[in-house]
Amino acid sequence: MLKNLKIGTKFNLILMLVFLVSIFVTGLALSRVLEQRAQNEVTSQALILIKTMNSVRSYTQNRINGLLAPRLATEPAFIPETVPAFSATEVFEYLRKNPEYENFLYKEATLNPTNLRDKADNFEAKLVEQFRQNPKTPEISGFRDFPDGQVFYIARPLAVTQQSCLQCHSTPDQAPKSLLATYGTENGFGWKLNDIIAAQIISVPSEDVFANANRTWKLIMGLLVAIFAIVVLLINYLIKKTVIQRIRKIEKIAQQVSTGDMSADFAEQSHDEIGGLAAAFNRMKASLEIAMNLLNQQNH
Length: 300
Description:
Beta-Lactamase, rod-shaped, alpha+beta, Tll0287-like_dom, 2 domains, 300 residues
C-alpha cells in the first residue's frame, strides 16, 4: 500500500507520526514534572507549618509551662495554655483567620484526649495505630478527601517522652484538681511513658495547586501543538517547493522526451542533487539524440 503513495503523502505520514510521538512523549514527561512540582509545593507548605507548630509546642513546654504550672494546684479552673497541644492548636486557629489559610487544618489527633476537641476520627485513629504498630515510622503522608475538596496531609507520631506529662495523664488522683474540675475524670488518663498517644497532622488544600499545574500543562501543550503544526506545515511547504515540484517538472519533461520531443530541456538552475539529476537527464537526452541521428543516417 505504501508503495502506491506519492512522495509527498509518505513524507506527510512520517511527519505526522513524528509529531504524534513527540507530543505524546513531551506531554507525558511534562505532566509528571508539573505533578511532581505541585506535590513538592504542597509538601513544602505542610512542612513549614508543622515545623512552626513544633516551635510553638517547644516554646510552651520550655517557657510557658514552667511559669504557669505552679498555679494549676491553686486555680479553680485548669489553665490550658500550659499544654503544648492547646497552644499549637490555638495559634493555628488564629492563622486560619487569614483567608489564604482558612482551608488549612492542624490537629493533634489523640485516641484518648483530655480535651475532646482533639479526639481522633476513624481516619486519624488508623494513622495512630499505624504508628503504634511501626514505631520507627517517622512520618506518613498522602491525600484525603474533605467536603471542601482534597487535601494533602503529613502525619507524625506524638509520644509521651517526659515524666512530667504523666502528672496530668496517668491517673485522676495524680492530676491537678483544676484539670479534674474542667475536664472531668473520664478522659485523658492511662497514658504511659514512651507510648504513642496521638498523631500530629497538618492538612494542606491541594486541589488548587494541582488545578494550576493542569492549566499550565494544557497551556504549554497547546503552545507545543501550535509550534509543531507550524513546523510541519513549513517543512511540508519547503519540501513541496524545493523537491516535489522540481521532480514533477523533470518527470513531465522525461515523458515528453520519451514520446520523441527532443526540444524539451531539463532546465535546472540549482546545483543540488536534483540539479545534478536534471543535468544527467540532459546528457542522457543528448546521447539519445545522437544515437537516433546515427541510426537514421544508417537507414538512409
